[in-house]
Amino acid sequence: MESFEVAVVGMGAMGSAAAYHLARRGARVVAFEQYDLGHVRGASHDTSRIVRTSYGAPEYVRLAQSAYRDWADLEQESGERLLTITGGVVFLPVDGPYAAADFTSALQECGVPYELLNPEQVRQRWPQFGVPDGVETVYTEDSGIAHAARTVATLQMRARVHGADIRDRTSVESIVPDGDGAIVRTSGGDVRAGRVIVAADAWTNALLEPLGAAIPLDIMQEQVTYFRPADPEPLGPDRLPVWIWEDEECYYGFPTYGEPTVKAGRDVSENRMLPQERSFVPSDSLSRELAEFVGGLIPASGPALRTVTCQYALTPNRRFVLAPVPQHPAIIVGLTAGHGFKFTPAIGRVLAELALDGESTDDVSSFGFPSP
Ligand SMILES: Cc1cc2nc3c(=O)[nH]c(=O)nc-3n(C[C@H](O)[C@H](O)[C@H](O)COP(=O)(O)OP(=O)(O)OC[C@H]3O[C@@H](n4cnc5c(N)ncnc54)[C@H](O)[C@@H]3O)c2cc1C
Question: Is 172 in the pocket of ligand 1 (CB under 6 A)?
Fold first, then answer.
């Protein structure tokens, strides 16, 4: 049987980043993807993802700070430009469930520059936003956009350059703990690995359940819509920041990016379905709700042009899991609960460190395995 130091399950953003860091460190690594590389059935396809340090909890701010260093390193090593910095705003209605003070104190604690703006200041600075009164706005200049598909392709290409053995259209059927490591049973035959990184997102429990280690996951089909403004110029990345509306219902969006459209979505659509039940058909009612919201916040955004579906696998409290399975320490899980893309190269490095060193140089103690 072939033998590897580390096997990675799943070649979305997180698995691709883990394979890249493992191979770059010289480990003998094999990685499996059940579909074609770059497929649209998971969470890592399409163009843009928001990157930001702006979170209401310091552990995520600190991980984001690390991630910016890893993005810079990846861009330098690959020669690819993956981030576009636009600045970013988080809108927080004062009577809503999220407090601007949580954001400002977390940013302050971690030394990230920010501005707290009132609606008048927002409207003066970005007249494109029709922000109502009663909204506090946290601005951070470091926010921006990661190109999702290009990032994943770059990570896979660089992983291969560093010697990773990436096997697409190869499904991992089970992971069987074996001595210090595990046997990985796949549709293309079995391999032995000293460590296994499970970066399977919505499919994670199909592998963990037989090990008695399932994680509660809330899985749903998400959707994002591209709107076509009559005049894209004022909505360009040099004129409009990325934005997040944090209320009972959360929305987010982007300036134009590579095409004369602006993209927006609702975060957590509650359109629940398992991966094998995905329809890939956008919900009309979610589309209407989004168009109404975006038309109010950015009146010049224009009509909807197209809608793309995606997938969330949410852990309890949307907390990351970056940890070994307690009963099977050779098996390490990476789950990012629908907000992980901005951390991609850092999470790949952390998972590689957990596999090769048994610990990470980042403090990931708050991203442990959830108790059943
Ligand atoms: C609409 C949308 C918008 C988002 N916006 C943002 C944002 O603005 N900012 C941000 O930071 N994050 C954002 N996210 C979240 C981010 O994109 C995800 O956290 C991240 O892409 C998850 O990556 P992943 O590799 O864990 O999952 P996936 O991309 O789903 O990859 C998992 C892979 O594992 C493979 N796999 C599973 N089981 C097996 C098996 N048994 N054998 C072989 N292969 C297997 C799957 O086929 C899949 O390719 C967004 C997500 C969505 C859906």
Answer: yes
Task: Determine the pLDDT at residue 371.
Answer: 79
pTM: 0.98
Measured distance CA(371)–CA(267) in Å, rounded: 25
Q: Which residue has the tokens 């403090």?
A: 363
Residue 200 Cα to ligand 1 midpoint, Å, equals 8
pLDDT digits 0-9 by tens, 296-338: 999 999 999 999 999 999 999 999 999 999 999 999 999 999 9
Q: Which residues of the chain have pLDDT under 70?
A: 372
185 lines ligand 1 (CB under 6 A): no
Domains of the chain, CATH where assigned: 2-44+149-212+317-367 (3.50.50.60), 88-141+218-314 (3.30.9.10)
Strand 144-147 and strand 2-9: the pairing is unpaired
Cβ–ligand 1 distance for 348 under 6 Å, the answer no
Question: For residue 154, which phi and psi values (nearest 5 degrees)?
Answer: -65, -45
pLDDT computed for residue 182 by the predictor: 98
CB of 194 closer than 6 angstroms to any ligand 1 atom: no
Cα gap 266→297, rounded to integer Å = 13
Burial of 130 from C-beta contacts in 10 A (0-12 / 13-18 / 19+)? middle
The pLDDT assigned to 31 comes to 99
